[in-house]
Design goal:
- The structure holds 3 protein chains of 3 kinds.
- About 2% of the residues of chain A have low confidence.
- In chain A, 55% of the residues are buried.
- By secondary structure, chain A is α/β, with parallel strands linked by helices.
- Chain A contains 16 helices and 10 strands.
- In chain A, strands 1, 2, 3, 4, 5, 6, 7, 8, 9 and 10 form a 10-stranded mixed β-sheet that branches.
- In chain A, α2 links the parallel β1 and β2.
- The radius of gyration of chain B is 22 Å and the shape is globular.
- In chain B, α3 runs antiparallel to α8.
- The mean pLDDT of chain B is 84.
- Chain C contains 19 helices and 2 strands.
- In chain C, α3 runs antiparallel to α4, α5 packs antiparallel against α6 and α14 crosses α16.
- The longest helix of chain C has 32 residues.
- The chains are: A alpha/beta, B mainly alpha, C mainly alpha.
- At the B-C interface, α1, α3, α4, α5 and α6 of B face α1, α10, α11, α12 and α14 of C.
Chain lengths: 339, 258, 384
């Protein structure tokens, strides 16, 4: 018993090695692929040990870390609204553009504190072995007579209110202008009310596939990467409508107060180079934020399922909008949901 | 009563183990989602478990933290429960409420509070800190369980023991502890289970690279709900059954030998 | 007296540890529910001058001047973000207003009042300033009010806000109470049976009760998904055996949530009950029978009252833990089954609004405590 206590008490002293970099992503298959294609090669080439951890977007941990000045995470992958907010709040360091080459990134995938990592998106998909007919676009998704069955959308305002407005005929470039007004929000909720009984909601990215496979939903809005992955195992089973794409960009950021910030910037520079990213795209349907993935015809042809190839027909989730209105609309959504 | 339990007991037990029965085949699925019946039988998720060292480490971390937390919460909680049972004093209700407080606070708030508390003493990113945090969360179980099992016992027994010449510590050792032992066992068990399954504090107070089992299961859930967690759960269940069976056999042997 | 002193000695270690490791940090965390430091920390002079102003009409020029200097300063120091978020949560639009002003302010000159008004008409509106004055005070009622679906209008009067948390809190307590009741109804006979069984059987049953403890709640919720989904095992059994024509909607229902929560919390009810019941002297029961008590009277008058401490302990644990649940309803509950805990997590982790998270936590705690108090008094009156 005493030995155990001593062991436990000495564990904090087994602190991190001198210059080991801690990289934190969202985990899952993508991170496993990134480890193989990006982190380990860079670590071998530079001799700097890299440890990668995962989190589920719990920003509170980063806020708490910076507040107590005991920063144990160095580089973090963050979603766009969290990046913007975190940068304003000073929990992420300003990106060192003298170390990271800003010109290689696709336009609008870099910001003050973030360097674009991957684009991700969600689109409507269904299981072709269960359903032959499918709606074309969101407007038809509301037609429960021609296309019976439950629809699975994301729990929350983000990605759901946009879908409602798109289904109601609002043009893509006006969605956020409409949603910014009270009337626009009411319009979105009224639209959702129309098929309320046929809606199911998911919270984690794993659920849409689960719902479709388990018979709980016929059509689902799900992350494109997951669908492409599933189709790799069972070719052609899942059909996806790229015209219903909603997408955004995740970025790499360095946590403020990290003792390994310098290595962190070098790391970001290293893993956003074209060659490692091409290796990554070969083993996982990722859509890196490197401009070649949007502009180079050969690379686009090699990665037909990358979000970047379809971004033009999709709706970009407006970062500013969600930073400003996020909390308010999430509350409104929850109030609507429980009515 | 006998007639009622003849029906309710099997049903209740079925309810208790239904998810576990589901977990075993679900962990053997060949597909990527949770399906019952499973989409083909395969050991691929068990292979993931065996090949990824993080799972083994997570299990070890959870066991270490759990044991540490249980020891501390018993060491603090059992004397306190005895003290509460021993004498009625003004403010007793308040003390009891405070002991139960960690249970009532929403886990994420407790996690945030404990993180800042541990940060003040430099243990915020360590397993030792996590064990201490879990000990705090386990204390209510210990106190409530021990108090419940002592409720029937009259403190006058102690005075009787004193009158017959027993010293204070002897009286406690020989009389109170044995009487309280079902409560101590139950409380310790709850405290361990609470620590073993605790997620929120583990998210905040994690040593880098040292996940506990629930944290490991939760990792990547934003991206995928991997059947590997079912394989892990099956393994842990088998481990638990083995441990409990061993403990029982040893206890029986000791009793028989005595 | 001796007893009291011993009790004091025995209790002190725990109390000291709790106070330092938990109560103090918890108090500081919950204090955020009423603390209002953001504005005053980021722009102290402006805040001070605002508080000094009486609140009528528009503030004097020094206030404008202070803001003109301190807004850009806060932005550079990266403290403006917290302020804009804090203000925006209470009054939508403040964020863009302050950010725009912070950007424009360095280019302005005295008198600033005119410059501000030209930039955005909101600066000429007394309501904006009344709000800012309130935001500059050391404490705020905004979070506690919002936690019960109230808000403050421009004049500081309390008005109703959209119904969100009150129904959710009531639902949380109701689900917790229902789960406690079901656990009691199922757990009491099981505990009784456990204490009457042959030791070999009792060992197996005890194992069956304890083994679920080792599997994570995440796993169990996921297992329920696999069991209850349309193509899951339960539906397959119901349809296969002819009880149903088509698969039923089992997932995303209140029933599924209750089922899953009971499965998790049942051991917490059974074990304390069994511990207490095991202590009840069989001789007491025999004596009562000897005195002519029938089985019903035996149970109601002798056994039940003696088992009450176990009932109280089990119910206390189950209710308290159930009230804090949120993972299970989130994964397998429907839109109308969500519990407060999920919002505490939302405010803590997503929007970093720790004031709101603290307010909801404090409210939940108070309600759970209230229910515990009321039921304790009710139990006493029944026992008497």
């Amino acid at each position: 018993m005493r030995l155990l206590l001593v062991l436990l008490l000495t564990l904090p002293c087994l602190a991190r090695a001198q210059s080991e970099l801690t990289v934190v992503g969202f985990g899952g298959g993508f991170q496993d692929a990134a480890r193989r294609a990006l982190f380990e090669p860079w670590s071998r080439a530079t001799g700097i040990p890299v440890r990668d951890d995962s989190y589920n977007g719990e920003m509170a941990r980063i806020y708490a870390m910076t507040r107590t000045r005991d920063v144990v995470w160095d580089v973090v992958m963050v979603e766009a609204p969290e990046l913007a907010r975190g940068c304003e709040d000073g929990i992420f360091q300003r990106m060192d553009w003298s170390v990271v080459d800003r010109t290689k990134f696709a336009p609008s995938t870099t910001s003050e504190c973030g360097a674009g990592a991957v684009s991700w998106g969600a689109a409507l998909f269904w299981d072709t072995t269960r359903t032959a007919r499918a709606p074309k676009g969101f407007a038809e998704l509301w037609d429960t007579e021609r296309f019976p069955g439950k629809r699975a959308l994301r729990w929350g305002a983000k990605m759901t209110l946009e879908v409602a407005l798109l289904a109601d005929g609002v043009p893509r470039d006006q969605v956020y202008a409409v949603l910014a007004t009270r009337e626009g929000q009411d319009r979105a909720f009224r639209k959702l009310d129309a098929i309320r009984d046929d809606l199911v909601f998911w919270r984690s990215g794993a659920q849409p596939m689960q719902l479709v496979n388990g018979g709980e939903a016929t059509y689902a809005l799900g992350y494109t990467g997951r669908v492409v992955q599933a189709n790799a195992q069972a070719p052609g089973r899942y059909a996806m409508d790229w015209g219903t794409l909603l997408w955004s960009v995740d970025s790499w950021a360095v946590v403020a107060g990290s003792p390994h910030a310098a290595e962190g910037f070098r790391f970001i520079q290293g893993i956003t180079e074209l060659e490692p990213l091409k290796r990554l795209a070969a083993i996982w349907p990722a859509s890196p934020a490197h401009r070649a993935f949007a502009e180079d015809a050969a690379i686009r042809a090699a990665n037909p399922d990358a979000v970047a190839s379809h971004a033009a027909q999709g709706l970009f989730l407006d970062t500013r909008f969600w930073v400003e209105k996020g909390e308010d609309l999430e509350k409104r959504f929850a109030a609507w949901a429980q009515r | 009563m006998r007639r009622i339990v003849a029906i309710t007991t099997p049903l209740t037990l079925l309810l208790l183990i239904a998810p576990l029965l589901a977990v075993i085949p679900a962990g053997l699925t060949g597909g990527e989602t949770l399906a019952l019946p499973p989409e083909g039988l395969s050991l691929r998720w068990w292979k993931v478990l065996a090949e990824d060292p993080r799972w083994g480490e997570a299990l070890l971390n959870s066991l270490l933290v759990g044991m540490g937390a249980t020891v501390v919460s018993l060491a603090l909680g059992v004397p306190a429960a005895i003290g509460l049972w021993l004498a009625r004093f003004p403010g007793r209700g308040v003390v009891l409420a405070l002991c139960a407080l960690p249970l009532a606070v929403p886990s994420v708030t407790a996690a945030l509070a404990l993180y800042f508390g541990l940060a003040a003493i430099g243990l915020a990113n360590s397993l030792a800190g996590l064990a201490l945090a879990h000990a705090v969360l386990g204390v209510p179980f210990v106190v409530i369980a021990v108090l419940a099992s002592l409720r029937m016992v009259d403190p006058v027994l102690l005075r009787a023991a004193a009158a017959s010449g027993a010293t204070r510590p002897a009286a406690y050792a020989r009389i109170v502890i044995p009487l309280a032992s079902p409560g101590i066992a139950a409380g310790g068990l709850f405290a361990f289970a609470a620590s073993f399954d605790e997620l929120m504090v583990a998210i905040f107070v994690t040593a880098p690279g040292a996940f506990t089992l629930p944290r490991q299961m939760y990792a990547g859930i934003r991206e995928q709900l991997s059947p590997a967690i079912f394989a892990a759960a099956t393994f842990v269940t088998v481990l638990a059954i083995t441990l409990m069976w061993t403990a029982e056999t040893l206890a029986r042997r000791r009793v028989r030998g005595a | 007296m001796n007893d009291r002193r011993t009790a004091f000695v025995l209790i002190t270690p725990l109390m000291a540890a709790l106070a330092l490791a938990f109560l103090l940090p918890l108090g500081l965390t919950l204090w955020r529910a009423v603390a209002n430091p953001e504005f005053r920390d980021a722009m102290p002079r402006a805040a001070h001058l605002l508080r000094a102003w009486d609140g009528t009409g528009l503030p004097p020029e020094p206030v404008f001047a202070a803001l003109a200097t301190e807004l850009p300063g806060a932005q550079a120091a990266q403290t403006l973000g917290a302020v804009t978020r804090r203000l925006n949560e209470e009054r939508s639009g403040m964020r863009s207003l302050l950010l725009a002003t912070a950007r424009a302010a360095p280019g302005m000159e005295a008198p600033y009042a005119a410059g501000f008004a030209t930039l955005d008409p909101a600066w000429a509106d007394p309501a904006t300033w009344r709000f800012l004055r309130r935001a500059a005070s050391p404490m705020t009622a905004a979070w506690l009010l919002r936690a019960v679906d109230l808000a403050q209008d421009d004049a500081g009067r309390v008005i109703a806000a959209e119904a969100l948390f009150r129904p959710m809190l009531l639902r949380t307590l109701s689900i917790a109470a229902t789960v406690t009741l079901i656990c009691l109804l199922l757990g009491y006979p099981l505990a009784w049976h456990l204490t009457r069984m042959r030791p070999e059987h009792a060992r197996i049953v005890r194992a069956l009760i304890l083994v679920p403890f080792w599997s994570s709640i995440l796993v169990r919720s996921a297992a329920w998904i696999a069991l209850l989904q349309r193509d899951g095992a339960v539906n397959a059994a119901l349809v296969g055996s002819g009880l149903l024509d088509a698969p039923a909607q089992l997932l995303f229902t209140r029933g599924a949530v209750l089922l899953a929560m009971v499965q998790v919390l049942l051991p917490f009810m059974v074990l304390p009950l069994a511990a207490v019941m095991g202590r009840i002297e069989p001789r007491l029961m025999l004596a009562a029978t000897g005195l002519g008590a029938g089985p019903v009277a035996l149970f109601l008058r002798v056994f039940l009252p003696l088992s009450l401490p176990g009932v109280a302990a089990g119910c206390a644990i189950v209710f308290t833990v159930a009230a804090g649940f949120y993972v299970t309803p989130a994964l397998i509950g429907g839109a109308r089954d969500q519990m407060v805990g999920s919002f505490v997590v939302f405010f803590t982790n997503q929007t970093i609004n720790w004031g709101m998270a603290a307010a909801l936590s404090a409210l939940l705690l108070a309600l759970v405590g209230l229910v515990a108090l009321l039921s304790r008094n009710a139990l006493r009156r029944i026992a008497a």
